[in-house]
């Protein structure tokens, strides 16, 4: 029994794209069959083997039995927010660790384009994790309190979308869950390659990767992931405040980061999303808004102001007042003409909101009517 358990745990996910392509190639099997296997697993998420995949060569079935599993992760639990707009998924990995992913439901009709209501309907965004824990140690983020445990394989990243597809048709994917995606760069690129191919077929324009500012990752981002959105967790307009709240910022000086972003934008012509958490008395004053406006003057950027989520009694930070958040937005929009949004908070009651992912789920699933929000991924830029 123990040996069969070890054999099962040594098998890889069929969604580990580079590995399955390499194994198929070595066995003389066409890689064209691989997306058909992915489609089968996506349509049969509870399948325990791959014998049911139609129309494969006999050698492919033998290889799949020997070296692959439909998924190596398991959906352990799911919790709905009270308003049912958010579902947090707890996913157990093959190595015994766990990660979280969050499904957020929005209504595109609540957004406007050129001053007119937008067509559409309910859409879902999946917030995925790229690592177990995180080594960045941002002081306002619950995930940072876990420390870094391990990188996810590309298959484990893709499997979050497979599990989430049981709950909602996913239109957008944001790498804003647990971990720093740029610190797991190869798996990130490989997973997005699967997301944008058959059978998932997500548009690169509907995928956003968030980073604290890993410069060497930003430098190659456009070449490896063209048309994918880049979001930068800036959170402060100067280096001193950044280092105070984001210790990892010491390795990435603000001047060098902004130069890298300017080069990226010149090359990609892409709008950059700037994430800015609002911390009372730390980075939310009018002077900070002016500093940020001047810092971004030469960029085509969208600033997303994020109300701080308390992460327990250990947190020394407080949430900015609504008045300060709106004043901050008014400076950026009115004086510096920078498009500035205030993030609608979703999933706070299930610790599924920004900065709250730390592998914990409430026991109860809630019922109630949904209040649908407009999605930042639906901004027309």
TrEMBL record:
Cofactor dependency: [4Fe-4S] cluster
One of the Pfam families matching this protein, by short name: Radical_SAM
GO cellular component: cytoplasm
UniProt keyword terms in alphabetical order: 4Fe-4S, Cytoplasm, Iron, Iron-sulfur, Metal-binding, Methyltransferase, rRNA processing, S-adenosyl-L-methionine, Transferase
Record's keyword annotation contains Iron: yes
Domain Radical SAM core: 120-349
Keyword Phosphoprotein appears in the UniProt entry: no
GO terms assigned for molecular function: 4 iron, 4 sulfur cluster binding; metal ion binding; RNA methyltransferase activity
Location within or outside the cell: Cytoplasm
InterPro entries documented for this protein: Aldolase_TIM, Methyltransferase_A, RNA_MTrfase_RlmN, rRNA_lsu_MTrfase_RlmN/Cfr, rSAM, rSAM_sf
GO annotation, biological process: rRNA base methylation; tRNA methylation
Signal sequence bounds: none
Location (main, coarse): cytoplasm
Name the record gives this protein: Radical SAM core domain-containing protein
């Amino acid at each position: 029994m123990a040996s069969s358990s070890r054999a099962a745990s040594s098998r890889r996910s069929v969604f580990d794209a580079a590995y399955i392509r390499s194994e198929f190639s070595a066995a003389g099997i066409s890689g064209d069959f691989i997306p058909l296997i992915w489609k089968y697993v996506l349509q049969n998420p509870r399948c325990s083997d791959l014998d049911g995949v139609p129309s494969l060569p006999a050698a492919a079935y033998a290889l799949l039995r020997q070296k692959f599993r439909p998924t190596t992760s398991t959906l352990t639990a799911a919790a709905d927010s009270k308003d049912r707009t958010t579902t947090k998924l707890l996913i157990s990995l093959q190595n015994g660790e766990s990660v979280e992913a969050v499904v957020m439901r929005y209504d595109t009709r609540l957004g406007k384009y050129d001053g007119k209501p937008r067509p559409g309907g309910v859409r879902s965004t999946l917030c995925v994790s790229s690592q177990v824990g995180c080594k960045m140690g941002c002081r306002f983020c619950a995930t940072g309190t876990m420390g870094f445990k391990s990188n996810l394989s590309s298959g484990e990243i893709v499997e979050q979308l497979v599990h989430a597809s049981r709950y909602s048709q996913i239109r957008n994917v944001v790498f804003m869950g647990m971990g720093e995606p740029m610190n797991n760069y190869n798996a990130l690129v490989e997973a997005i390659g699967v997301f944008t191919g058959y059978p998932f077929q997500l548009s690169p324009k509907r995928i956003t990767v968030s980073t604290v500012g890993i410069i060497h990752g930003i430098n190659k981002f456009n070449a490896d992931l063209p048309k994918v959105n880049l979001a930068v967790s800036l959170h402060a307009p100067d280096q001193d405040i950044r280092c105070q709240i984001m210790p990892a910022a010491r390795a990435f000086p603000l001047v060098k980061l902004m130069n890298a972003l300017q080069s990226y934008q010149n090359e990609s012509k892409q709008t950059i999303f700037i994430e800015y958490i609002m911390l009372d008395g730390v980075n939310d004053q009018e002077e900070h808004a002016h500093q940020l406006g001047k810092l971004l003057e030469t960029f085509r950027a969208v600033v997303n102001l994020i109300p701080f989520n308390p992460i327990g009694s250990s947190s020394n930070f407080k949430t900015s007042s609504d008045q300060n958040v709106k004043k901050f937005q008014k400076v950026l929009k009115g004086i510096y003409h920078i498009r500035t949004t205030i993030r609608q908070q979703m999933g706070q009651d299930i610790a599924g909101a920004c900065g709250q992912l730390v592998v914990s789920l409430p026991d109860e699933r809630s019922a109630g009517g949904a209040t649908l929000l407009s999605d930042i991924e639906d901004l027309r830029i």
